[in-house]
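Why does residue order matter? Because the sequence determines the fold. Keep that principle in mind as you read this record.
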Amino acid sequence: MSHSFHVHKTNSHLKWDNSLKPVLTVSSGSTISFDLLDGGGNQLTETSSVTDVGNINLSIADPAIGPVFITSADPGDVLKIEFLDLKTASFGWTAIFPGSFAFGLLADEFPDAQIKIWDLETHREDGYTVFKEGIHIPIRPFLGVVGLAHEAKGQFSTIPPYETGGNIDCKHITVGSTLYLPVKVPGALFSCGDGHAAQGDGEVCGTAIETPMKATVRLTVEKGKDWVTSPHYLTSKEHSTHHAMMGSKGEYAALGIDPDLREASRKALRGLIAWLVGEKGLTRVESYMLASVAADLKIAEAVDMPNYAVACSLPLSIFVGPPYA
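Structure:
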């Protein structure tokens, strides 16, 4: 029989550490709700300015809430995480951090701090938020940080992704989706955080639509799935339908070609930004932010060496009115 539990946002940590004391112990199959801080640790609010972006403390970024001990989880098992409900706050933010932070795919080309505050409430029932008049971004909430404790002793930053999960920033793991993570320590020690209202694959400017989140998940231990040695996921049917709708008007993409995969990605992003500036009349800052919340980086070619080809694609369905549609 499953039971329901709650974890408050005060139970946060900034390192994966298998010596952390669990804030909650549950049995397999339990449902747990979490109050989550945003990826900046709630340092930015709906009234924040560019000055606040420049003063943000990145050492407390990507806080995880937990850990939760699952009684029957043993090393070699798999933890199945079902995402039952994800609700954003009434606002979100997207920021370009100062160039000195060296954060973002084109950080060297965007030296000045920038911020956009998003209204996530007015059109919540319609399923979108407004970038600017004529450009709507579908709200597709997901958690950037979902992970388990490492096998190795010590402290590991919550900022990167790992084979045990962590800051995977995978926009496809929405409500109705299931994530599978390999258990490395008794009890698994599950934590999550970093709510996003929307993001493009790559999160190219360094931030998505960051927002505090209320999340409800079900945690189930599964045995005998030794093929799960890194995060695996199953998307929801609604996710597939959404992406079919997003592609109904086609996509515009720019290709980046280079022997270095990261540089190919940078070239592709520059190409899409140039199109948004030249064809749609957006500023470079607007284009960089828009790409971070709505465009997808895709490896188009990885075998014809010495060069990789990376596409940076944008669904045209986000352009809903003049002068963009």
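The helical segments are 50-54, 237-246, 261-280, 284-294.
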